[in-house]
């Protein structure tokens, strides 16, 4: 069953939400908390090791009721069934969307064209397990008989961002293998990385779903050339493995059949870290930890599939984000993890969220009349507090923000962790309450200011507050809790795509730039420059001079 094509703006719930927005838009979070005792507990979901508090949002019972009505009217329940059931919901590419099958249990059944794909998934998982264990233990060696010390993941977009984010996030669990990532076609990156490496002890993992991506193929060829300066063609089999759906192209590149890790067209690049695309993750943290990552994601899948919407974390966070995006017209959302380990988390989610829901055609092929994908950004706290939080507190933009924090630190430094978390809680409280003129006045008076001097300073010290946040507080950063956290955002993407009546799983928008780059490369490499606008021509002449 395809996803329905329901324009959300034509639903009763949407119209009621518009009215409700007009009536409540001036209400301050301070008032909501003052008038509703127990609001903090009421608007929170406790699930496994997660406490998700969405009470510091501009919403009431009525808002939630209407958002849930909207979810019903756009057919979210059936859409979830189609998603997990392997329907071809990526209609523009004629594919199912089954990253959830990558973390299914062995006895689960997910049918694609009548075949249970869970069996194939487990075959590849077995291969990831035996390969990663052999490399980590030193049983699998390089061409001179030495064990591997370094692993280089060569890939871009979904073939890079997931692996790099997770290996950084789970650094605490890493073994002795050093992982490196080469993504950008910028030759300075690959040459910088190669500077640190010994060809005799380095394993290269080429990851490209299509195996046609310019950046990845260029980097892989440069690296192979560098490798062959000290090794011979037959040694390539010991040092290069590939992850792709394009088995023909892998062969052309010279990768041995045994070194190929297949993937499937029903896994989107930006949702692929759970497949063999995550090989560098398994190499870096060991297979058992990789498996735990999948278990955590599977638990979140089941929560999303089975929990009533009002207690369902991805559904609630997705709908709350729709509330701000489409009614308050907030354009961006910030994601601020209070752990340095998650320093690539928002960069990873930028692809997941913006490549998925950055669409302007509805599912019937007409231009949408409402806003779709949010702009995602963020950096870890507390660093971000000293960078862009000024704008969040006193700027003119409304920026709904997710704060992600952990009860325990991994190295157990209680002193540091208490300070970190004090900042974590203080920021959401400050964003919500702000500081009133009366409070500022009192503070200035206590500092000895009065009269004209006080009045002059007063307006600059006022914080409006009323800035919405979600707090995701998790027991500990483990492979399992990270798996669940990533899956939470994956399902939030799905919820929003369904509401906005768009196709979340294609990415035609990145093609145009790729095509033009190919043509311009010809202009750069040849003596004559082809037809371009006057600005591009001028720039190309300057570049070539
Ligand atoms: O940026 C576009 C894109 O197609 C992404 O969706 C994908 O993750 C990335 O390029 C890399 O593609 P591939 O894995 O085929 O090299």
> How many beta-strand segments?
13
Bound molecule kinds, no repeats: 6-O-phosphono-beta-D-fructofuranose
Shape: globular
CATH architecture of the largest domain: 3-Layer(aba) Sandwich
Description of the molecule:
By secondary structure, the chain is an alpha/beta fold. Helices cover 48% and strands 10% of the residues. Strands 1-2-13-12-10-11 form a 6-stranded mixed β-sheet, with helices on both faces. A 5-stranded parallel β-sheet has the order 6-5-7-8-9, sandwiched between helices. It is globular. The mean pLDDT is 97. It binds 6-O-phosphono-beta-D-fructofuranose. Residues 156-159, 208-210, 213, 216, 269-270, 355, 507, 510 line the site of 6-O-phosphono-beta-D-fructofuranose.
Please name the defining characteristics of this protein.
545 residues; alpha/beta; Rossmann fold; 4 domains; six-stranded mixed β-sheet; five-stranded parallel β-sheet; 22 helices; 13 strands; binds 6-O-phosphono-beta-D-fructofuranose; monosaccharide binding; cytoplasm; isomerase; EC 5.3.1.9; G6P_Isomerase
Summarize it.
This protein is α/β, with parallel strands linked by helices. The chain has helices spanning 12-24, 29-35, 39-42, 61-73, 76-84, 117-137, 161-169, 187-195, 214-228, 236-239, 247-253, 279-285, 287-306, 313-327, 345-357, 389-394, 414-433, 437-446, 451-461, 479-500, 511-525, 534-544; strands spanning 44-47, 50-53, 111-112, 115-116, 150-154, 178-182, 202-207, 240-244, 260-262, 332-337, 375-377, 401-406, 469-474.
């Amino acid at each position: 069953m395809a996803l329905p094509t329901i324009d959300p703006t034509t639903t009763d719930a949407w119209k009621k939400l518009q009215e409700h927005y007009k009536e409540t838009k001036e209400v301050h979070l301070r008032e909501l908390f003052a008038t509703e005792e127990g609001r903090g507990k009421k608007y929170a979901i406790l699930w496994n090791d997660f406490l998700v508090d969405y009470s510091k949002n501009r919403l009431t019972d009525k808002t939630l009721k209407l958002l849930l009505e909207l979810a019903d009217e756009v057919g979210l329940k059936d859409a979830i069934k189609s998603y997990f059931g392997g329907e071809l919901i990526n209609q523009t590419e004629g594919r199912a969307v089954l990253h959830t099958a990558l973390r299914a249990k062995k006895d689960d059944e997910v049918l694609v064209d009548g075949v249970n794909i869970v069996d194939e998934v487990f075959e590849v998982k077995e291969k990831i397990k035996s390969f990663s264990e052999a490399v980590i233990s030193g049983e699998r060696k390089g061409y001179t008989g030495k064990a591997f010390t370094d692993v280089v993941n060569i890939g871009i977009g979904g073939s890079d961002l997931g692996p790099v984010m997770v290996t950084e996030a789970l650094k605490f669990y890493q073994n002795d293998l050093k992982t490196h990532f080469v993504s950008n076609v910028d030759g300075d990156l690959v040459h910088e990385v190669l500077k640190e490496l010994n060809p005799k002890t380095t394993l290269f993992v080429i990851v490209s779903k299509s195996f046609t991506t310019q950046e990845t193929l260029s980097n892989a060829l440069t690296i192979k050339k560098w490798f062959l300066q000290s090794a011979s063609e037959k040694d390539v089999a010991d040092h290069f493995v590939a992850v792709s759906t394009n088995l023909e192209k892998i062969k052309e590149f010279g990768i041995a059949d045994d070194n190929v890790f297949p993937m499937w067209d029903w896994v989107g690049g930006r949702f692929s870290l759970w497949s063999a695309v995550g090989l560098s993750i398994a190499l870096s943290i060991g297979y058992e930890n990789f498996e735990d990552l999948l278990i955590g994601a599977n638990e979140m899948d089941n929560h999303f599939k089975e929990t009533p919407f009002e207690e369902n974390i991805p559904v609630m966070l997705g709908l709350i984000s729709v509330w701000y995006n489409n009614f308050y017209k907030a354009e961006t959302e910030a994601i601020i993890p209070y752990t340095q380990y998650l320093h690539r988390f928002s960069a990873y989610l930028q692809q997941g969220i913006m490549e998925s829901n950055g669409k302007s055609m509805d599912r019937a092929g007409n231009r949408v009349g409402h806003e779709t994908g949010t702009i995602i950004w963020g950096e870890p706290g507390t660093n971000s507090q000293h960078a862009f939080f000024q704008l969040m507190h006193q700027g003119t933009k409304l920026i709904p923000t997710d704060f992600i924090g952990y009860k325990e630190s991994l190295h157990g430094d209680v002193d540091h962790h208490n300070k970190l978390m004090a900042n974590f809680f203080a920021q959401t409280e400050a964003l919500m309450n702000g500081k009133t003129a009366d409070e500022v006045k009192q503070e200035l008076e206590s500092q000895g200011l009065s009269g004209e001097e006080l009045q002059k300073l007063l307006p600059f010290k006022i914080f409006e507050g009323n800035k919405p946040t979600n707090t995701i507080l998790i027991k500990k950063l483990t492979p399992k809790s990270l798996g669940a956290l990533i899956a939470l955002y994956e399902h939030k993407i799905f919820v929003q795509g369904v509401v906005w009546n768009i196709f979340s799983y294609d990415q035609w928008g990145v093609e145009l730039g790729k095509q033009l780059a190919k043509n311009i490369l010809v202009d750069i490499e040849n003596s004559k420059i082809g037809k371009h606008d006057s600005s591009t021509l001028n720039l190309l002449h300057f570049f070539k001079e």
